[in-house]
Specification:
Distance between the termini: 47 Å
Number of helices: 10
Strand order of the largest sheet: 9-10-8-11
Largest sheet: 4 strands, antiparallel
CATH architecture of the domain at 166-294: 2-Layer Sandwich
CATH superfamily of the domain at 166-294: GHMP kinase, C-terminal domain
CATH topology of the domain at 166-294: Alpha-Beta Plaits
Shape: globular
Helix content: 25-40%
Length: 308
């Protein structure tokens, strides 16, 4: 994320088993999208998804349309990478509904995602923990939603995430960031000083990636905590001020081994010893958070036929 570097962007993240979104695709005369989730996408994002589906049909020379319906509990704009997952799923459902199969490269290229971070596109197909090395420098620093023609981020081989219990904590009183907010954040925060990029890269590779591969819970938790102190993650967390810091500190005081913020938040994730998770959940609720216990998942999306 610093200027004049040979590569730009990069990141690290892992897949979890929920909350999930279900994307249903059925053959239709035209392209339609309906979001039936409790927290649906906005009108502009639905328009972007419809446009991506239309371009995808032209690329594959598909004459039929598709009716896409979105269901499930996965939220948008809380830091879960839902936009990337839903777009890839909608494109894949479109192809399958019309009797076609689109390979991974075509789906990713057609999605327009993955130019800033390869976490979402790789975890969609593979699950596990993904560490990507960004892409060759060129072009502005911007979120994936705005980097539609850049080459994909170069990902290291994914590693299996150990079966550690994870508690998701979503602060109810913190306003989620919009796509516009994310664009503005990149504009005012980048480029970072070179040393800040070096530090975050070290933590990602030599602490988090290595700890997951070696099933070292304590080292992984230390890495999560150290990443929160990096310039980039610190700037993301600062968007929510004292309110987020108070919740995070409360969870640590209650026994969490580490508390991280996912992407631009405000979703927090906690790792704790198995015997402490239930008590930690009660504390999180007392701090006015929605809570959910999840586990890492080491597989990608699940495809099902409506005719099965």
């Amino acid at each position: 994320m610093h200027a004049d570097a040979p590569r730009m962007n990069g990141g690290i993240g892992f897949a979890i088993d929920g909350p999930q979104a279900t994307v249903i695709g059925k053959p239709a005369a035209s392209v339609t999208v309906e979001d039936h989730r409790r927290w649906p996408m906005g009108a502009a994002e639905l328009d972007q998804l419809r446009a991506a589906l239309t371009i995808f049909a032209d690329r594959l020379c598909m004459r039929g349309g598709v009716s896409i319906q979105l269901e499930g509990e996965m939220r948008t704009h809380v830091g879960m990478g839902s936009a990337t997952a839903i777009r890839l799923a909608a494109l894949e459902a479109f192809a399958l509904a019309n009797g076609r199969e689109a390979d991974r490269a075509v789906l990713v290229a057609s999605s327009g995602r993955g130019g800033t971070s390869g976490i979402g596109v790789n975890s969609y197909f593979d699950g596990g923990l993904v560490c990507d090395l960004g892409r060759k420098s060129g072009g502005p620093f911007a979120p994936s939603s705005q980097v539609r023609t850049a080459p994909l981020a170069l990902a290291l081989p994914s590693v299996r995430m150990p079966d550690w219990p994870i508690l998701l904590c979503l602060p109810k009183r913190l306003q989620s960031k919009t796509q516009g907010d994310e664009i503005a954040f990149f504009a005012r925060t980048t480029p970072l000083p070179a040393y800040a990029s070096y530090k975050a890269s070290y933590v990602a590779l030599f602490e988090l990636y290595a700890a997951a591969a070696e099933v070292d819970f304590a080292a992984f938790c230390r890495g999560v905590e150290r990443m929160q102190l990096s310039s980039w993650k610190g700037a993301e967390r600062a968007e929510y001020g004292v309110a987020l810091a108070t919740i995070s500190e409360g969870l640590l005081d209650a026994g969490a081994r580490c508390v991280g913020m996912s992407s631009l938040g405000p979703l927090l994730f906690c790792l704790a010893d198995a015997g402490d998770v239930a008590r930690l959940s009660q504390v999180a609720q007392s701090l006015d958070c929605e809570v959910r216990e999840v586990r890492p998942v080491n597989r990608g999306r699940v495809l099902r036929s409506l005719n099965a």
